[in-house]
Write a structure and sequence with these properties.
Blueprint (H helix, E strand, L loop, with lengths): L9 H9 L5 H14 L4 E9 L4 E8 L7 H7 L2 H7 L7 E4 L1 H6 L6 H8 L5 E7 L5 E7 L7 H27 L6 H11 L4 H8 L3 H14 L5 H11 L4
Antiparallel strand pairs: 1-2, 1-5, 3-4, 4-5
Helix pairs in contact: 1-7, 2-7, 8-10, 8-11, 9-10, 10-11
């Protein structure tokens, strides 16, 4: 990606002007194009959601679209740790390589360490946010990534535009589904916070049967296989936070 000191690259300007009209395949192509421009071999898009106990990074799209690679799933387990440890997280950019990867150690659990072992050894991640406040992370991986200061700014702007377009499509798709009631969302939100059916029933003054029915209804409306899957889909769509 070649950029001048006083102007954004043609790629950045193109995405800034047309991203709102893109569909998912073209958004994926946009990220692939951007990855190639900066010397990356893969891209990984995540939405960021926070429950009362902890933040969650949810895989959304990667270079294997419409499939999702195991690399992206493993990366989701380590990105938050990298943001907490990086001195550049305040500007929304975190980079790592094989050397720093050996120094970074998670104390949370063995799963994080296992994921880190299979994570790409070199990468850069950009924090992104939409006008409506939906947050995400776009990461690029590969051993030949090369970015100057201006190129990094251009790449970050492109990520913002493409993520906003992707989030807009997710919200539009969700609007077309059967509406979910306030009580159903309350039950799902409490499930996301780690409460059991019995705890949800007591908190909302419901019977356990009714609480379970609300959760079953929500899973059905979201086309989810179980309540955990329903929580993940609701977080990704911005229905709960």
């Amino acid at each position: 990606m070649n950029s001048n000191n006083n102007a954004s690259s043609p790629l950045a300007l193109s995405f800034a002007g047309s991203a709102s009209s893109l569909d998912k395949p073209r958004i994926a192509d946009g990220f692939r194009h951007l990855a190639a421009e900066i010397g990356a071999t893969g891209f990984h898009v995540f939405t960021l959601a926070a429950s009362r106990e902890h933040a969650q990074i949810l895989p959304c799209m990667d270079q294997d679209y419409p499939a999702l690679s195991d690399v992206t799933r493993n990366l989701a387990a380590t990105l938050l740790h990298r943001y907490r440890q990086s001195p550049t997280a305040g500007i929304g950019i975190v980079a790592w390589n094989a050397e720093s990867g050996r120094r970074v150690r998670s104390r949370r659990d063995a799963r994080t360490e296992k994921a880190k072992a299979s994570e790409p050894t070199t990468g850069i991640a950009f924090s992104v946010v939409t006008e409506r406040g939906r947050q995400g992370i776009v990461a690029f991986t590969g051993n030949t990534i090369s970015l100057g200061a201006d190129e990094m700014l251009d790449a970050h702007l492109c990520c913002h535009s493409l993520f906003a377009a992707l989030n807009r499509l997710i919200l539009e798709q969700q609007k077309g589904k059967t509406s979910i009631s306030r009580r159903e969302l309350e039950c799902l939100r409490l499930t996301a916070n780690g409460l059991t059916s019995g705890e949800i029933a007591r908190k909302l003054h419901l019977s356990i049967h009714t609480a379970n029915q609300y959760l079953a209804n929500t899973a059905h409306k979201l086309n989810a296989v179980n309540r955990v899957h329903a929580v993940a889909k609701a977080l990704r769509a911005g229905l709960i936070d």
